[in-house]
Amino acid sequence: MSDVVTLERVTRSYGSVTALDDVSLGFPRGRFVAVMGPSGSGKSTLLQCAAALDTPTSGTVRIGGVTVSGLNETRRTEVRRKHVGFVFQSYNLLPSITVEENLTLPLRLAGVRPDRAWLSELVERVGLGGRLRRRPAELSGGQQQRAALVRALAARPDVVFADEPTGALDLRSAAEVLGLLRELVDELGQTVIMVTHDPAAAARAHETLVMADGRVVDLLSAPAPEELAVRLTRLNGVLT
Amino acid sequence: MIRTALAMSGLGGLVVAFFAVFGGMALVTGTGVIVESGLRSQVNSTRLTGADVVVSARQLVPRKEDLPVALPERATLPSSIVDRLSRLPGVESAVGDLSFPAAVVPGQPSTSGAVTPGTSGSTGPADPAAAGHGWSSLAFSGGKAVEGAPPRRDGELAMAGARVGQEVRVVAGGRPGRYRVTAVIDAPGLYFADSTAAELSGRSGRVDLVALRAGRGITAQTVAAEAERLLGDRYVISTGGARGDAERPGTAAARGMLIALPASIGGISLITVGFVIGGGLSLSVNRQRRDLALLRAAGATPRQVRRLVAVQGCVAALAALPPGAALGYYLAARLGELLEGTGALPPDLPLTYGPLPAVAAAVLLFGVVRLAAWTASLKASRMPPVSAVAESKAEPRVPSRVRTGGGLLLMLVALGLSATPLLVRGEIAGLGPATAALLAIVGLALAGPMLVQAAMGALARRLPSGLSAPLWLAVTNTHGYALRTAGAVAALGMMVTLGLSVVLTQTTISQAKADEVNAGLADVASVSAPRLGGVPHGLLDDVRALPGVMAAAPASTTTVLTRSLAVGDDPGLHARTAMILGPEAGGVVDLGVVEGSMGELKGDTVALDADLGEVGERLDLLMGDGTPVRARVVATYSRALGFGALVLSRDLAAGHTTTGLDAEILVRPAAADLSSLAKTWPGAEVSRRAAASIADADATQGLVNIAVLAVLIGYVLVSVANRLVATTTGRVEELLALRRLGATPGQVRRMLRWESLVIALAACAAGLVLAGVPLVMLSVGFLGRPWPAGPLWLVPASVLVVALVVWAAVNLPVRRRHLAL
Ligand SMILES: Nc1ncnc2c1ncn2[C@@H]1O[C@H](COP(=O)(O)OP(=O)(O)OP(=O)(O)O)[C@@H](O)[C@H]1O
Ligand SMILES: [Mg+2]
């Protein structure tokens, strides 16, 4: 039971589309897992269900030992606040408040006093020092994504989900963000689950989940980028 | 283009614009109907239906660069004209018509039908103030003798509802007498022998009108043309619908009121309509900022973007104009009923419902929409595409400096203006606060965003750190989206300001007037005889002879035209209501004489507001019938607010009023036993409160202001609610983002509740300050105390209404599913 998040026979359908099809999975603590797969294969849906951002049509999701399926919205939110950090592809920073206020917003919502030392360490690490009083719109995309990462980590969650965190970034920023994620896992024992389309990014993970048609079709341990690329091309071929 | 425009607008924005134009159209059309009626409505010809042409004296005094003033008192013609007109070719018969007060003394047996309507061509019972006529007029009124012979001598009478040979007591021209009924007729009114009528009318050989009947086969127009050739343009020659005007100058003069009515609140209405439409369109543009920015990025020129917004506005406008016009006509009809109910609009002066007001309103509103669309889209269309996309995420943070500066300046000027009641007294002092309120709301609309931003910023910085997250978010949101919030704050603040200042200014001034009237008429009772058409001769002597009566004085009111006497008067000729008092009035009415003496009010003399002139001055006046006179000022007085700026001597007014009778007798002390009058003078009425005040016209104006204001407030409230609903539904994404970041549905709802509270409080605070300062000044100036008169519960009520509207519009549109992840 060292899994932080467990999915048991989770199905999520939108009308006739089955985005997640009877998926059972466990994410072990302290690992860096990449999720890959063709577009529309259900990666985002998997992450959102695992993070309790979405409610599965059937099946159970356990986060930090708590079964979230069946909880009401408020209770689910509370579990999520405590255990989960989420990095959205489109940053999701509120434009009307400063970067610093954005970083502590989830804590504020949870009614938890921010751990200043931890926060400043995170800010230092991502190199956002000196930009805290600005508005999000005044930061570059990479800087905004790094702020979103700090926000996800501020509450010391058990697990951080990241949905294509580097999707909108240039190569350098992307590499920086990835390096950061890896550091978190290696140095702080953080659990990170990340969706990506980039085999090079997936190569920095301990494991890579490959999805197709709402199912997990493969689980590779530290695959080489070339090998991954081949597998994915083949998958795409199958689908088309 | 149209399809793209509509697809892009999303319905929310268009609905807001639609309602803004719809309500605006209704308001403008309604006002237009009133104005058009003031210009073109025709008095129903109620009596002289049998006359083809009516000749009357001029009742309109032309003014330079302004509409002519209608004289309410009858201007007469020399009776020699009748003969000359009757000899014209094509004229079959001509008669000099007279109308004078006449009434059957009430309480006599078997004359109950004296004032019942006749069978032909007449509506309702005759007005006792003008029910007496000469016999020869009867043929022109469509009536005829049913039985008996025409009255030929003094003491003979024809009327409906009596028996031939019956003796009736009648008061005619103020003279009580006994008359024998010689003919029973089928028309309302009392008809006397022509010679008797001439004497009773007191017109000394003049006539009110000349009625002409055309010979067989000759048109009214031909006769009118002949008459015009004979008389030139010294007299008015009317045919068809215009005859009613000639017949009833008092009614025709009421038309002037119809034009004046919208003048006072029309400005406020127009500003409000512009403001609401502008706000609606800018909301619609703001909702599409991102899409418009993407369009620009995709290669659309600024012109194309502006065109797109204009098309959206025009579509909303086109859809809203027809139903808006319909509502406008409906509202005008209701207002007409209201005016008629208060007696301000004579029932025989119906409103005119033509297409013109709707057309004019449509053109005006279309212009407003175009202009509003253009301004709203200007900024979005001009931005370079890149920053347009970047900016579209957040709203532009800095409201324009010029705008803010202008707004603050306006508010300062407004507060300055509101101090006028401290410096000057009298009617004019009320203008300061009214104008102040108007300027203040425009100022608030302009400076609102900056003020909201600054206030909320200051608040946000001072908030304790342990504050609940929803409250903190509410304050920072209000601060960060100042433009979005300020629109609602300004509109609601404007409503609070307008509602409170219009109503309470009115109640305060009328309270001040009433106070003066009460002080001036302390311990005074009043005797009047409306059923006899005015105070009959002899009643005054009888009243004076009653034991316990210390003093009694007749009083009435008329309208005179003067040059401009005070700031705020019409620059050319100003029509004003004036009291008519005699020299003995000084012992009854206390006008607060400053200089001179009321006892001198004999001959061609007047008393004047002490602020407007000195004893000994000469004043040129036009009497109510158009006669120019030069009067000497023999007294000045201080209670001008309650009694008006001008008091005429009875001698001066004699012969220049339609009835020639006093309206009431003021009696001191009020405790005197007047009950015996009921027996000796049936028809006389005693009231403990003197009616002698000239505040009636203002009261009507006040009532109309409040009625229009109520409609206006409803309009703004609906439009603000609409905007808030649209804003909230446009925020679903933002709310979901909060949910994803860890806010529970409860927290989001609490945040919205706090936001609505903040908006409501800001609006009420702004509104209360902007209305409060002028009102305090006004109250100090007029009542000598810092709080206004009137229903002060309006203050908490308006706060409550604002709070409720904001709460409902912000919170109710958010459904459960909006907050579910
Ligand atoms: N809100 C929704 N309503 C209806 N269908 C949806 C919704 N969200 C996702 N889907 C469908 O579910 C399937 C999986 O979507 P999902 O977003 O998980 O794919 P993805 O693997 O993240 O793709 P991408 O790599 O393009 O982000 C798709 O077929 C998609 O069309
Ligand atoms: Mg996805």
Average pLDDT of chain B:
84
Q: Please, what is the oligomeric state? A: heterodimer
In what order do the strands lie side by side in the largest sheet of chain A?
Answer: 6-7-8-3-9-10
* CATH-defined topology of chain A: Rossmann fold
Number of domains of chain A: 1
Subcellular location (chain B): Cell membrane
Transmembrane segments (chain B): 265-286, 307-332, 352-373, 406-424, 436-460, 481-504, 702-721, 757-780, 792-814
Membrane topology (chain B): Multi-pass membrane protein
Keywords (chain B): Cell membrane, Membrane, Transmembrane, Transmembrane helix
Give a short overview.
The complex is a heterodimer of chains A (240) and B (821). Chain A has helices at 43-50, 73-83, 99-110, 116-126, 141-153, 171-188, 199-202, 225-239; strands at residues 3-14, 17-28, 32-36, 58-63, 66-67, 84-87, 159-163, 191-195, 207-212, 215-221. With 240 residues, chain A is α/β, with parallel strands linked by helices.
Question: What descriptive keywords fit this protein?
Answer:
heterodimer; A: 240 residues; alpha/beta; Rossmann fold; globular; B: 821 residues; alpha+beta; 4 domains; 6-stranded mixed β-barrel; 24 helices; elongated; binds adenosine-5'-triphosphate; binds magnesium ion
Structure description:
The complex is a heterodimer of chains A (240) and B (821). Chain A is of the alpha/beta class. Chain A has one domain (3-92, 156-239): 3-Layer(aba) Sandwich (Rossmann fold), CATH 3.40.50.300. Chain A contains 8 helices and 10 strands. In chain A, the strands form 2 sheets. Chain A has a 6-stranded mixed β-sheet, with helices on both faces. A 4-stranded antiparallel β-sheet of chain A has the order 2-1-4-5. In chain A, helix 3 (99-110) packs parallel to helix 5 and helix 4 (116-126) packs antiparallel against helix 5 (141-153). Chain A is globular. The mean pLDDT of chain A is 87. Chain B has 821 residues and is α+β, with helices and mostly antiparallel strands. In chain B, 51% of the residues lie in helices and 16% in strands. Chain B is built from 24 helices and 25 strands. In chain B, the strands form 5 sheets. In chain B, strands 6, 7, 8, 9, 10, 11 and 12 form a 7-stranded mixed β-sheet that branches. Chain B has a 6-stranded mixed barrel with strand order 17-18-23-20-22-21. Chains A and B meet through helix 2 and helix 3 of A and helix 14, helix 21 and helix 22 of B. Bound molecules: adenosine-5'-triphosphate and magnesium ion (MG). Adenosine-5'-triphosphate is lined by residues 14, 17, 19, 37, 39-45 of chain A. Chain A: It holds the Pfam family ABC_tran.
